[in-house]
Amino acid sequence: MTNRIFIICTHGPENAELATLAFVMATTAQASDISVLIGLQGPGAWLAKKGVADAIGAPAFPRLKQLLAIYQEGGGKMIVCGACIKARGINPHTDFVEGAAVVNSGSFIHEVTEATQVLVY
Known about the structure:
alpha/beta
């Protein structure tokens, strides 16, 4: 079985440290040649919106904008909760960053059951 990590991020700009940690772990997995996917739920859905990562920084960590760019350059993808973006007025057709796709809860369950490890931030 190939190692596959699914990282669920439930924090956005309101908790810069936890939002950033999800991407620190994702880029570290990429650098270790481990397959990784990020799932954004709740306030974490804000991270799929263009420009939001630009303003997020946590002490002692790279800026989220930089981590997002590294993740995207490494082919990183994000799945985003459809109900969560609807509640926040985020339009996936015009607002999403590269590599983000809206999904339903069934897709999250599928990823959780297929991953060898799940991390939640």
